[in-house]
Amino acid sequence: MQGSTVVEMYGEIDLATAAAVQAPLDAATARPGARLIVDLRAVVFFDCAALTLLHRAHRRVSECGGGLGLVCVRPWHRKVLAAGGVTALVPMFATVQEALVAARPD
Could you give all domains of the chain from N- to C-terminal order, each with its CATH number? Predict the structure, then answer.
């Protein structure tokens, strides 16, 4: 869908990899009204560094009138995201297509 950016993450997102992940997230959240979908389905591990990145992305899109959605299906993803406060701020989706439909402007 035009206007939405999908960022697919994979592997491990931790303190060692967070800086490399931050650059594409910052680029995707830099424009006014940015709609960002972060696909976590291929992520096998993440820690508080990943939670910090997601909170930052949420803040950036919120400040510019945009939105953020997460695609994740693994129960442990959702458990960690809930413990880190992310699920209270960001909607979760089972597929990228569901997230794109939800991201459509009214």
Answer: 4-103 (3.30.750.24)
